[in-house]
From TrEMBL:
Species, as recorded: Nocardia seriolae
Record-given protein name: Secreted protein
């Protein structure tokens, strides 16, 4: 009898307006299903991105690290080769996942390297005057010496990119 009164009182309390904090909703995960080695686009102004085919002009970034986060790993950071990080989070800011990207530079692709710290992939056929074609990529080398024409050196990425006008 006592148990039924407690249950009834609890049920009545809920009905009259006592509320329990709602479970936090997560923002949409822009990179849901993207695996290591996959590519993504990202617009920093609009804060929108999506998985894209790695050979598309929209594929500015390649996923190099991915972490599912817990309460104990909220401070997880990307490694030194990441050039972009994206946190999938809840409305309250709780981090659910961390995606770490680097530039999706590949031999034969074209880029606007005017600002080497913010390169933009271009369509090679578009004929942009800023377009430079990647002719070689040398990991573990951070000097301009191995490139016959022009080199972009990324010391933090431990990489040299050889380019030629497109």
């Amino acid at each position: 009898m006592r148990l039924s009164r407690i249950i009834g009182a609890v049920a009545g309390a809920v009905v009259v307006g006592l509320s329990v904090p709602a479970v936090s909703e997560a923002y949409p995960n822009l990179y849901e299903g993207l695996e290591i080695g996959g590519c993504g686009s990202y617009d920093a102004v609009g804060k929108v991105g999506a998985p894209v085919a790695c050979d598309s002009v929209a594929a500015q970034y390649r996923l190099i690290e991915q972490y599912q986060l817990t309460a104990d790993t909220q401070d997880q950071r990307c490694g030194p080769h990441a050039t972009l990080s994206y946190h999938h989070r809840t409305d309250e800011g709780f981090r659910l996942a961390l995606y770490c990207f680097t530039y999706n530079m590949t031999i034969g692709s074209c880029w606007d390297l005017t600002n080497v710290n913010d390169p933009h992939r271009l369509d090679c056929a578009a004929g942009s005057p800023a377009s430079e074609r990647i002719t070689d990529m040398i990991d573990g080398v951070t000097t301009e010496n191995p490139c016959p024409k022009k080199a972009i050196v990324y010391p933090r990425l431990d990489m040299t990119v050889c380019v030629a006008p497109n």
